[in-house]
Write a structure and sequence with these properties.
Distance between the termini: 34 Å
Largest sheet: 4 strands, antiparallel
Low-confidence stretches: none
Oligomer: single chain
Number of helices: 2
Strand content: over 45%
Radius of gyration: 13 Å
Helix content: 10-25%
Shape: flat
């Protein structure tokens, strides 16, 4: 919430594809968000289906979501 900037990047290096989405919002408690609703649970399930890793980091600095797929 309250983000004024969102950055989306896609990078491929060393046989690894990474999608990174970041914002400069007020952040949230990522563990609480995972236990409520289905949004993050869906992300975790879908990344596991394609054998990818999902990392969610959030705090007063904003939020960063990274999905990494290895060859």
């Amino acid at each position: 919430a309250q983000a004024t900037r969102v950055t989306i990047s896609l990078a491929y290096k060393r046989k690894e594809l990474a999608l990174v989405i970041t914002d400069n919002g007020i952040g949230f408690d990522a563990e609480k968000a995972r236990s409520k609703g289905s949004g993050f649970n869906n992300l975790y399930q879908r990344t596991s289906v394609i054998d990818a890793q999902l990392e969610v980091v959030s705090g007063s600095f904003g939020t960063s979501i990274t999905i990494t797929i290895k060859e």
